[in-house]
Automatic annotation (TrEMBL):
Protein name: ABC transporter ATP-binding protein
Organism: Glycomyces tritici
Chief place where the protein resides: membrane
Native organism taxonomy: Bacteria, Bacillati, Actinomycetota, Actinomycetes, Glycomycetales
PROSITE patterns in alphabetical order: ABC_TRANSPORTER_2
Family from the record: Belongs to the ABC transporter superfamily.
InterPro entries the record matches: AAA+_ATPase, ABC_transporter-like_ATP-bd, ABC_transporter_ATP-binding, DrrA1/2-like_C, P-loop_NTPase
Pfam families referenced in this protein's UniProt entry, alphabetically: ABC_tran, DrrA1-3_C
Keywords annotated in UniProt: Antibiotic resistance, ATP-binding, Nucleotide-binding, Transport
Amino acid sequence: MPVPAIEITNLAKRYGEAGPLAVNDVSLTVESGSVIGFLGPNGAGKTTTIKILAGLLSATSGSARLNGFHVVDQRANAMAQFGAVLEGSRNVYWTLSSWQNLIYFGRLKGLRKSAATARAERLLTELDLWERRHQKVGGFSRGMQQKVAIAAALIADPAIILLDEPTLGLDVAATRTVKNWIRTLARDEGKTILLTTHQLDVVEELCDRVAVVSSGRVVTDLPTGTLLSQFRQHDHYEIRVEARAEPVALPDGFTAVRGDEDTVVTGHVQGGDELYALIEALRGQGLPLRSLVQVQPSLEEVFLSLVEEPVHG
Ligand SMILES: Nc1ncnc2c1ncn2[C@@H]1O[C@H](COP(=O)(O)OP(=O)(O)OP(=O)(O)O)[C@@H](O)[C@H]1O
């Protein structure tokens, strides 16, 4: 069997002597070339796990390996396997330019000057930062800073990429750039990517698989499609009709909230017949239809229901 890119075995982490377990017996195997979403509510233990993988924190018990190398016992080899962008950290130096940052991190990762230069040139060009390569990163927008941070993580062309909230705080265009880039790294370059996010679209578009952690434990580990389809069986609709003074008569299970202009009808619809029946009921009352949207659950709602009742494949 090929060596997994990431292998976490019974990992636990307690901050301080008597603190709670931030990570509580996490085991996870990620095969080479896949993109895994490492998801969970705030405080679930995602960042702590990633910091242990990145050698920035020591585990209380259990082990982690990157391409077979133990992150503590074979530290130098393990550290050469990955690049990381950590949440809430300054991953690059703001007083340096993007060019200086990339050369610095390239040299730190053991690249020769010529290799670092060639790689930095390629990364900055791909990310559309070449023209501004000599400007200080501190003056860049959040999206550009994030692009530089990702480029710095990729400078030594690592096989494994750890991304903690890679699109947090980015605008639509920067999010699209980062997502496209992650997709290219995975599909065209065969990188293994572990990412955390609270954005459902990022999971849907990028992740082959999703592991959900809650209170330091993995509660679900499934292919993305399988997991998301579990939450799409009961389709939730939001229908806006013109607001009227008289109450709206609705089939069982639907609620209507009247606003100034629209009345918003919400509820779960089991199949097309029920949806038609609802629309007919509204039409029968002479209520002009303004809009109809299928509302997808947020990741937070998915997490909440998983914590209450884990889904298994
Ligand atoms: N340096 C620290 N000292 C003490 N407790 C900590 C420390 N860092 C994190 N924790 C605690 O460990 C638990 C897990 O935190 P962690 O940051 O790993 O969660 P997370 O899943 O990444 O959350 P988020 O989605 O909010 O980033 C939380 O209860 C947090 O308060």
